[in-house]
Give the backbone structure.
Amino acid sequence: DAGVIQSPRHEVTEMGQEVTLRCKPISGHNSLFWYRQTMMRGLELLIYFNNNVPIDDSGMPEDRFSAKMPNASFSTLKIQPSEPRDSAVYFCASSLSLGGYTFGSGTRLTVV
Amino acid sequence: AQTVTQSQPEMSVQEAETVTLSCTYDTSESDYYLFWYKQPPSRQMILVIRQEAYKQQNATENRFSVNFQKAAKSFSLKISDSQLGDAAMYFCAYRRAIQGAQKLVFGQGTRLTINP
């Protein structure tokens, strides 16, 4: 198995632009999580899905952030418009019920 | 809400020696899972070890072992015979032991340096 695949690995964008981060979970995993990591705030859970349905999006910072999971093998996290304070590493992780979590390699987002 | 606290922002150890990283957590539940994750400079999050709260026996994975004290809500990680490749950020994490999607709650992390 290729593990959790995130793209792009790095993204540099200008303030005000739309940014889309992508994630392909491990086949057969039914839960998907989006985390954000910054020096100041550590690892924060943004949103998670179970069987493609959003369960808890209380960690999404504001309306500029949105996430979708149209099918079991793909999820996106979109920021529109982006701001410099959104600069962070964004991780996607997947799991199966009580199993362990597997993380992707993360996307380092820089908004200038 | 559950919380996880790592009180040591940084630790250092001499190569080949033993180091212990601390973690405490707060929960009102009796059954849960605890984890230690390693994040090297490559930023990949790697599972080091996992402990089920209902198991009294401490988990062990080669040079990595935990000291799980349920009553004290403490979950420390011991790394024996430290190697240069162990240098990384280490995160303690908690999840509820309920079927279905359950989030991982992370501590703030401990940066471990290995001195040659």
The first strand of chain A starts at residue 5 and ends at 7. The radius of gyration of chain A is 13 Å.
